[in-house]
Amino acid sequence: MLDIYWNLVIPLAIILAFNISLCVLIKIKVIQKLKLTKNLIVVLLVVTLVPILCIVFTNERKTSSIIYDNVCNNLISVGKTRALFLNERFEDVKLDAEVIAKHYIIEEFLRQVSIEKINKSDANFNMLLKNTQEHLNRILSSDKYEDIMLVTAEGKIELTGTKHKHAEELGLDISMEAYFKQGKENTCFTDLFYNKFAGENLMYIITPCNDQQGRFIGCVMLEMDMGRINDVLTNREGLGESGETYLVNKEKLIISESRFLKDSVLKVKVDTLGAREGLAGKSGVAIYPDYRNIPVIGYWHPIKYTNWVLLAEIDKKEAFEPLRMNRKNQIILVSTVVVIVVFIAIFSARITVKPVQELTKVAEYVGEGKLDRDVKTQSYDEIGFLIKVFNEMIKNMRLLARQATIISSGDLTASVEAEGELAGAFNSMLENLRTMIRQTQESIARISSASMEILSSSEEQSSGTSELAASVGEITATIEELASSSKQIAANAESVARAAEGSEASGRHGTESVMESVHIMEDIKNVTKENACKIISLSEKSQKIGEVLGIIKDIAGETHLLALNASIEASSAGEFGKRFGVVAAEVRRLAERTRVAAEEIKGVISEIQAATNAAVLTTEQGVKNVEKGVEVVQNAGRSIESILHLARETTDASKQIVMATQQQKSATEQVAETMKEISVVVKQTAVGLKQSTAAVVELNKLADDFKESIKKFKI
Amino acid sequence: MIADENQVIGGIQQEQNSGNEVRQFVEIRLEKELYGIPIEKTREVAVPVKITAIPGTPPHIMGLMNLHGEILSVVDIKSLLNMKTSVPAETSRVVVIKTREGPVGIYCDEVINIYDIMKKDIEVPLSTLSNETGAYVKGQAQTAHGLMGILDIEGLLLKQEK
User: Fold this and answer.
1) Which CATH superfamily is domain A103-225 in?
2) Which of A120, A464, A570, A658 can pair with A581 through a Cys bridge, CB separation 3.0 to 4.6 Å?
3) Nearest by CB to B45, which of A565, A571, A572?
4) Span A424-709 CATH architecture
5) Whole-angstrom distance between the N-terminal and C-terminal Cα of chain B?
6) Which CATH class is domain B2-6+20-161?
7) What digits encode the pLDDT tens for the residues A678-695?
């Protein structure tokens, strides 16, 4: 039940949703753009094809999986059966070999040969040999095996069957062969190989032979070909056109006959997914490229005892043939549906469109203003109704046209006897026309009286115009005088401007001089300040000298004292101190002189200090004076600056005056020009007045004519 | 004491005998007056340092002074000569006099110089001097600074001690 739900309900729901959305989409975007025929085709195609395609798609997937499952099952059953058969066969062969090995004649023969090393010419042994030979031949007569060989414990082939008459194997030493070594222990199968003696591909089954005491006395070796196995494997039953089963040994060489390649045994290598998986001891089914590199569905199964793999394969192309057929049918179905849908769409569109086209043609005719045609129709659907209504409309229009023709002939008394907005409007137009003509008649009477009045007033006006011409001439003369006086003003203003510019230049020069003198003053100030500093440092230095002098004086005093004491010491030394006394006296004198000199220097220094103090005071005064001077000069600078400013203003003002007078000049000239134009205009006016008088006379006449003509309308 | 006086006078007389004999005098100033002290009586001239007054001594003893570690009594010679008491000034000096009873410092306003004077140039002092002062002025001589009275300094000091 669940399966049905998934396979039917869900696709139908998807189709429905898809259709609805497509319809909506078409309604919005496409329908307004396409013509009716194309429109129908598109809609019908979408509505029919989408569900069909959905069903086809679902069907395709389902069918494909079913077919694949079927093929797989088929392959598995065939492959498994054949593999089981082979297993069974090898089991049989193994059992056969073991039974032969256990046979008492064989056992005795091998025991005598291997253990007792009996003389071969012994009569008893010859008897045994003969019996054994017969026994072997009996076994071989079943045609199950190619040959039977008895091998001694040392690995020498002692006896063979005589079925094939070739005895080249007899006496051959196989003790070094791998299968003999394995065969000593238990029964084993060799791989298929090319036997050069027999000239065909054979395999050996070798089984150990033990005596009663359990000693190893030799082996029994069965020789078997692939004939029977090939018969089973090449049976094509249940495998179709391209199916086959074959065996692969552990070197991945094909060992049974291939259906596609002749003479392939032990020559073709089968390195496919199936072979690999099977050699790994697994069985399974998959799609893979086979030894011909053609994609196949294959089943693999390992074979007991021999390390072989049975492969059952069928070409993918054949397996999926029904699917391809199905697909072809579906394509045919879909294309047929498309063709039918397109035809239906075109047909139904034509039925609908034809009367519409007729209607369009007549409507175009009416649009050009011709009303002498009706649309013919037999249909009673919506379009037929539309055509009927259209014919009605044309009839009404004809009525109105006739009425308009009557009115155009001047008869306004009749009205249209029909209903509707157009007829109403027509009647009200008629009414308005009547009223208008009535009003026009009245107006014309008024116009003729007014034109009489205009005539009289225009005559008055022409006399006024000649007076105006005279006064214009006077104004022109006055204005010319004004122009000459303004020219003089302009000249005066220009000379003022020149003077102001001169004073501005000299003022600028003055400012520059002031700036220079300020700089010089600053320099003087700096120099004076520097001088004051120098003088102060001089004063300080002289003070220092004074201090040093004090020290000198002290030293002189002390020297004096020492000299005194030296003199005293000298005198107390008596006669010996006399010379020293002289020196001391000399020192004393020196000290005295030093003291006097120091006094003098002190005097000089105090004078210097007084002088420097005075100089410092003077320089300070000088600095102050210089600063005052700077201030005065700066004041002067400022004054000059303001003078400069004033001069500039004067220049500007006079320039403005010049400009203004020039403007005035041009203005008066323009006025003069204008006055001239005015006089021309006045003259023209006089002429015009004369003309208008004539025109009014004409107007009067026209009004009379118009009165006559409007009387024709019947109201 | 009398013997000493005689000795001194005798000495002078001896010098007078040989008129060209030269004697040296330390010339000191007291106020404006100049006095000479024979050089052999003096030991040294020193700048006065701190003079420590000693209570209970006569007014002419100014006090004690430490001169190179030696304690020396200082006498105001001006008060001995009936002058105003000394006021310390920049030029003030102490002249150390050798007496029989040890060295004594005398305080004077200035030590001017040492003069070599020939014996014949020493005149007899003027009689206008008062007796008390005149007793210790043994003669007078002309120097570059003026007239210098020669003082019997030991006599003057010893008289006061008596």
Assistant:
1) PAS domain (3.30.450.20)
2) A570
3) A565
4) Orthogonal Bundle (1.10)
5) 11
6) mainly beta
7) 888 888 887 888 888 888
